[in-house]
Hints:
The chain is 17% helix and 20% strand. It is built from nine helices and 13 strands. Strands 1, 4, 5, 8, 9, 10, 12 and 13 form an eight-stranded mixed β-sheet that branches. The longest helix is centred in the N-terminal third of the chain and has 14 residues. The N terminus is likely disordered. The structure holds ligand MTE.
Amino acid sequence: MLIRRPTDIPSSEITPESVYRNRREFMRGAIGLTALGLSGGVLAKPAHITDAEVAGAPWLKNQISAATAGKADSNETLTPYQHVTGYNNFYEFGYDKTDPAAHADSLTTDPWKVEIAGEVNKPGSYNLEDLLKGLTLEERIYRLRCVEAWSMVIPWIGFSLADLLKRFEPTSKAKYVAFTTLMRPEEMPAQKSRLSTIKWPYREGLRMDEAMHPLTLMAVGLYGKVLPNQNGAPLRLVVPWKYGFKSIKSIVKIELTEEQPYTSWSAIASDEYGFYANVNPQVDHPRWSQAQERRLPSGLLRPNVIPTQMFNGYADQVAGLYSGMDLRKLY
Ligand code: MTE
């Protein structure tokens, strides 16, 4: 992956995240949960984002409005909405960080079907609306650490992948989960390019125990709103302890497999991008250090460089998944 400078978003366009967080705290307080030391309650919407700014099916907007504030909150400063949605990697729309926001409007996300296939008792092709029926949406504030050594803190809205997978009854042969992004070159211009290094569609995978881990999220929104297209609408994976490239966007197929699945970046350069891709400050990328990261927004005057944490700070919850594994070899 190429390392690029963060986009210079004028400070006048950056709404302080405190507007969002304060409203959220206010809403929690209003229903008395803060006093009890509990999370939960109705999500506050960021005051500065209008409905018209974010596309999305009405039923999805309604479901997101009813999402509850989650338990695994981070107290770190949220990355402003303008950066989360203006500085992206979504190579289907181009290789510059600003390309996804500039071009992803062309993506049609409604209707949207997801195929559930492979080692499950109940395979099938499901409308997103049916897939989400009965699932409780909640907010989870997670750090996102890109392999390129920048990071953000994002309030996602979604549900546990485990809750989804259980419904389709994985068989005893299900050892991995393979994910595939939409292939639609007429709406995703880079999929037409003959120069592209990625063999489309973009694909990713997890081991079954990683997929079933309670931290593993399927996101449909962020900042209390429907996911903007550039962030992987209408459905993306978020695996907060792994490098961002594992968090595949705009998913159309979820297949449970017996063998370790094909994954796009490790297929391009297996010495640089492993299947596991756990955030690990002790194992450098062959071309740069992974010991530190630029927490966005960052600039020349305020680089905002911070140490990278093992498993991106989620070691307490996930280190056990890898006990006995040599993480230098299985990076
Ligand atoms: N998913 C698809 N389909 N295509 C991509 O190019 N980029 C990945 C990941 N998911 C990518 C993708 C990378 S490298 C990162 S760091 C994250 O998305 C970025 O997510 P964000 O743009 O929402 O911050």
